[in-house]
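Input record (one chain):
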Amino acid sequence: MAVRTPDPDPSDSGDELPEFGSDGVSDASNPGWLSEFELAEARRRLPMLYVEAVPVRTDGSGQVTDIGILLRATPLGEMKRTIVSGRVRFGETVRDALFRHLENDLGPMAFPLLPASPAPFTVAEYFPLPGVSAFHDDRQHAVSLAFIVPVTGTCEPRQDALEVTWFSPEEVVSDALAAEMEGGRGALVRQAVAHLGLIR
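The corresponding structure, as predicted from the sequence alone:
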């Protein structure tokens, strides 16, 4: 199953992006935004940069107690599990992209705690051909910076995320959950849990 990382909705008023023109041409007022045709062409020729986040809840001592996994409907109507994910825009810092996607997927009251200097726990490469790596996206070659981000507020998924489910570190690394996750993201979540030192 290909990873179906959502692309930002240009009509979302909170995203401050121009709407696509009827002719599919990008808006001159925002040269960093690509039309659907331009995006398809770029995906054919260039690796795309993404950020991904594994949201976690911690106790008073900072120990991770729960890991949040999103539920999404695919374009084919299938229900799949995933994590927070999205492209980095032209001219946007990785930190700003990470915060934007966390807010888009978890809602404005999630209150993510981004460190002063965000550093990914791993870099994942998604390829259009299965088998090149553990990660697959039939649309493109994508390079993803993956982060673990504590959230302290109330998560109310929006856009195409239907819900966020909180799993214990033991539950989140199960084979059953990995089978529900798209694009090989079960392996990415396992890497996050291992990075936190919660599994051996």
